[in-house]
């Protein structure tokens, strides 16, 4: 059985089971994360703090009055950490998958970068040094459109620079021909 058909079966099973606790929690976390990231949510929280502050003299700045805001904010913060982390995990995975697709479809990109998020910090530091070298090469090339592969950075840099230089020359040649054509037609029709 092929890997693709196995994946399709798993997706079908997951879609059929969208009523489970995990799926409900995911939908709840998405909704709450979206809701608390709005200006309305901010102003509601601000209003709660302002009302709490205004009621201070009424309760004579008591320990209970202070405990109410401390307990409330602690509970909300504690629960929000888990909801936001769940949403961030999902967003991060979706972004990684999109980037993996881009790497997989680009013929000159190294497929070794597809699972780069699984590398150790030390391995990532080594890879970063490589990309710093690529950035230096790109600056030397003075070309914003140049990108590189892990396997053949220098060759790809030269190939892309040559390609863009050739395209620039072709544009200049077309412009020159266009100007000559327009100039000769103006001479014929004074």
From TrEMBL:
Polar residues bias (residue ranges): 181-190
UniProt keyword Membrane, yes or no: yes
Xref: InterPro entries: Iron_permease_Fet4
Tagged with keyword Lyase: no
Pfam families: Iron_permease
GO biological process, one term: transmembrane transport
Transmembrane segments: 40-59, 65-84
Signal peptide (UniProt feature, chain positions): none
Spans annotated as Disordered: 145-190
Alphabetical UniProt keywords: Membrane, Transmembrane, Transmembrane helix
Skewed-composition ranges (Basic and acidic residues): 145-158, 167-179
Ranges in coiled-coil conformation: none
Protein name (Swiss-Prot/TrEMBL): Low affinity iron permease family protein
UniProt source species: Flaviaesturariibacter aridisoli
């Amino acid at each position: 059985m092929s890997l693709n058909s196995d994946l399709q079966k798993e997706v079908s099973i997951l879609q059929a089971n969208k009523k489970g606790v995990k799926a409900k929690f995911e939908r709840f976390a998405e909704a709450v994360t979206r809701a608390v990231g709005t200006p309305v949510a901010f102003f509601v929280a601000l209003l709660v703090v302002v009302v709490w502050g205004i009621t201070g003299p009424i309760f004579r700045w008591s320990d209970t009055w202070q405990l109410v805001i401390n307990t409330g904010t602690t509970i909300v913060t504690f629960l929000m950490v888990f909801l936001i982390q769940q949403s961030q995990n999902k967003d991060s995975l979706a972004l990684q998958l999109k980037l993996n697709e881009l790497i997989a479809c680009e013929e000159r990109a190294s497929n070794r970068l597809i699972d780069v998020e699984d590398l150790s910090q030390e391995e990532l530091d080594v890879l970063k040094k490589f990309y710093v070298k690529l950035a230096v090469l790109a600056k030397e090339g003075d070309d914003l459109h140049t990108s590189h592969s892990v396997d053949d950075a220098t060759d790809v840099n030269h190939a892309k620079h040559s390609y863009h230089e050739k395209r620039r020359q072709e544009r200049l040649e077309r412009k020159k021909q266009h100007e000559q054509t327009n100039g000769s037609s103006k001479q014929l029709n004074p």
